[in-house]
Write a structure and sequence with these properties.
Low-confidence stretches: none
Number of strands: 14
Strand content: 15-25%
Radius of gyration: 21 Å
Order of helices and strands: HEHHEHHEHEEHEEHHEHHEHHEHEEEHE
Number of domains: 1
Distance between the termini: 36 Å
Largest sheet: 12 strands, mixed
Structural class: alpha/beta
């Protein structure tokens, strides 16, 4: 893969002036061969295998930063869903497995490890039950472990029993981490149509169709897109806006592919994918919301916001596909409310509501992400929000996700500051009406008809 002098200079500008970075290098590690009838032995094998394969990950990423001058913000690990690994033990408490993952993450120096996960979109195994019950304590007792569950797929429908139970798990996790503003829920996400090569937390895990180890990269670059649109100006038509975003995404993806392939080579592993997702941070100038406003809405949440986000997401995907044959993961545009300075401002100004966010998730990369709700929100209301988002993904054949954070002791309009990448959230009002009967019904929402797409 060759680069022209002009591309190199443009990339240097994006790195130096426009906050372009590689958001994460995530090493996927298959742990299926660590399963053992004895849970303690499983934990020992899990710890040993993670440390063996990931011991050079941070050092390798740091050396690539120095050699190429490309910032690599996070170094992470994704593993086989823990419910599959722990199943052979028959244990009803999988918190020790989370502790082993956390200890391994600390030993190798990564930021997060994803994969305390389960697929329950059609039903629960005994191990899935154990994992669900272990999530609150696991996230309260560990620093680096992230958890995710699959509540539905387009081909299976939505498991409403699992959705209702997950809502209760969210509230229990918030309660156990109440002294930190419910922070445990920031490491917990529910998916419709999960992807098995996602390098971004909290949903990162290694699917069963992946290689023994694989290096996936997540690139970002809202600042680079924002700057390109600012240079374009307000008079260009939407096709010119689209082309500008697509060309910028192309350059961002080329950087990600270069870093990913070099990291995989140095680690002696397989290169997987580049996830071309515009992932914002609380830093000024690194906001997806700012991009939407440059496209032409007064404030994110105003009429036209969903259309602008659809244009942005499609342009990013097409630019990435032009640059690499290995685009994967989620790819598009993230809208995590607390992690985006522009989104925070839009909520504060009353432009962006929970209902408008839900509409935006029909066209973005994932879904409702890092949304704070009152700590006294009922399990029924949380389950209803989850179900709405799962239905959007199911019907539209796309990945959707929900990362809700009930903030103990906080009500609508109040602020919680988690610091760092997680940023600041304004607690959103989910409304005074509930869905208690819908919540109690349970069962499953059937999948939409598939035969017309075969």
């Amino acid at each position: 893969m060759s680069f022209t002098d002009q591309e190199i200079l443009e990339t240097v500008r994006m790195i130096e002036l426009e906050t372009l970075d590689v958001r994460t290098t995530t090493l996927g590690i298959n742990l299926l061969d660590c399963a053992d009838p004895d849970l303690e032995s499983t934990c020992e094998k899990v710890y040993a295998k993670i440390v063996h394969h990931a011991r050079m990950l941070v050092e390798t990423a740091n050396s690539i930063e120095l050699d190429y001058g490309v910032p690599i913000v996070n170094k992470r690990i994704a593993v086989t869903p823990a419910a599959l690994v722990g199943a052979a033990s028959g244990a009803d408490d999988l918190v020790p497995l989370a502790r082993a993952m956390d200890a391994a993450a600390k030993e190798v120096g990564v930021d997060f490890i994803g994969g305390f996960s389960a697929y329950v979109h059609k039903g629960f195994t005994n191990a899935d039950h154990a994992l669900f019950e272990s999530i609150p304590a696991a996230l309260a007792e560990t620093d680096h472990v992230c958890s995710s569950v699959s509540l539905g797929t387009t081909r299976a429908g939505v498991n409403m029993d699992a959705t209702a139970r997950f809502a209760e798990i969210v509230l229990r996790t918030a309660g156990l981490t109440a002294d930190a503003g419910g922070l445990g829920c920031a490491k917990l996400v529910a998916f419709m149509n999960p992807v098995e090569d996602n390098p971004f937390v909290a949903g990162a895990h290694l699917g069963i169709g992946e290689a023994e180890t694989v290096l996936n990269v997540g690139v970002s670059g809202p600042g680079a897109v924002r700057s390109a649109l600012a240079r374009l100006g307000p008079d260009a038509d939407l096709l010119a806006v689209f082309e500008t975003i697509k060309r910028t995404a192309f350059k961002i993806t080329r950087v990600g592919e270069l870093v990913g392939r070099e990291a995989a080579r140095r680690l002696g592993t397989t290169f997987g994918i580049v996830d071309v997702s515009l992932a914002p941070t609380p830093a000024q100038g690194d906001s997806v919301s700012d991009i939407l406003e440059l496209i032409g809405v007064d404030r994110t949440g105003a009429p036209g916001t969903t259309a602008a986000l659809a244009l942005l997401t499609d342009a990013v995907k097409k630019g990435g596909a032009m640059a690499s044959s290995s685009v994967g993961g989620l790819s598009g545009a993230f809208i995590p409310v607390s992690e985006d300075a522009g989104m925070i401002a839009a909520v504060r100004d009353g432009a962006l509501s929970l209902a408008k966010l839900e509409a935006m998730t029909t066209v973005c990369s994932v879904g409702l992400d890092m949304v704070a709700v009152p700590g006294d929100t009922s399990a029924a209301t949380i389950a209803g929000i989850l179900a709405d988002e799962m239905a959007i993904g199911m019907v539209n054949h796309k990945t959707t996700a929900v990362r809700l954070i009930p903030v103990p002791g906080k009500g609508p309009g109040e602020t919680v500051d988690w610091g760092g990448l997680l940023g600041t959230a304004i607690v959103q009002d989910p409304g005074r009406f509930s869905c208690e009967v819908f919540y109690r019904r349970g069962g499953r929402i059937p999948a939409p008809i598939q035969s017309f797409r075969n």
